[in-house]
Amino acid sequence: MQAFENTASPASENFAGEELVSEEDRLRAQIYRLIAVFLSCPPTQKNLKKVSGIKGDDGEFGRALNSFAKIAGNTNEKAVDTEFHDLFIGVTRGELLPFGSYYQTGFLHEKPLARLRTDMAEMGIERVEGLKEPEDHIASVLEIMAGLIEGTYDRRASLAEQKVFFDRHVNSWASQFFTDLENAGNSVLYSPLGSVGRLFMDIEREAFDMS
Question: In terms of residue numbers, what domain contains 188?
C-alpha cells in the first residue's frame, strides 16, 4: 500500500538510505506495513501465502503472529474478501469503522482528522491522488508510522518525533480498534491480526515511554 507521498524538498533524499535504518527499526516498519496492508483492502492470495510463512517466537506477540500465519495459510482470497467486506464495508456500513475521528469522537471527519491533516502538511506528507478513505483510516496512520521510521518522507524521524505522531494519531485510539477487531463477530483471519495489532501497540508504547 502506498497512500501517501513526500511533498517536501528532496534535498535530503539520501538520508533515508538503507544503511541508516537499524534492524530493529526495519522490523518495526515491516510490522506496521504488514498490518496496514491487510487493513487497507482485502489481501491477495499472494499476500496470504507470504504471511503464512511467518514464524514467531514463544512470547505472546510471537504466538499471535503464528496464529495469524496459520489461519492465513488455511484460507483463501475469496473467503477473506467476504470477511473484509463484512467487517469494514457492509451494505450500509461494516461491523467496524476503522477511523481515528470515529473512535475518538463517535463521528467521522471530526477534529482528530483535522489535526492529522495539519501534522501531515507540516511534515510534507500528502495523500496520493485518488485515495478515497479519510487520512485517519487505521491503515493510513500505520503506513505513516512506517514511513517516519524508514525515512520515506524526506528524512527519518527521530524517536521523539515518532512518539509525537504515535501519541497523537495512533496510541490515542488504535489499541481499542484492535481489541474490537479481535472480538468482532465477523473476524476469522482478522481476529489474530487484531491481537497482533493490540500487542504491537503495547510494545511500541512501552518502548517510547522507556526512550
Answer: 31-210
Check which CATH number belongs to the domain holding 152 and give it.
Answer: 1.10.3480.10
Nearest Cα neighbor of 123 from 159, 169, 155, 168 is: 155
Average pLDDT of span 80-102:
97
pTM of the model: 0.90
Cα separation, 84 vs 165, in Å, equals: 27
| 12 occurs within a structural domain | no
DSSP lists the bridge partners of residue 4 as 127
The percent of residues above 70 in pLDDT, for the chain, comes to 91
Query: How many folded domains does the chain comprise?
Result: 1
Q: How many CB atoms lie within 10 A of CB 97?
A: 17
Strands, E, within the chain: which ranges? 4-6, 125-127
- Residues contacting 51, CB < 8 A, separation 6+: 34, 38, 43, 68, 69, 72
Angle (deg, nearest 10), helices 190-210 and 77-88: 70
Give the burial class of 78: count Cβ atoms within 10 A of its Cβ; 0-12 exposed, 13-18 middle, 19 or more buried.
Answer: exposed
Residue (of 156, 161, 155) closest to 211 by Cα position? 161
Query: From CA 194, how far away is CA 68, in angstroms rounded?
Result: 9
DSSP class of residue 152 equals -
Q: First CA to last CA across the chain, in angstroms?
A: 29
CA torsion sign for 84, 87, 92, 98 is negative
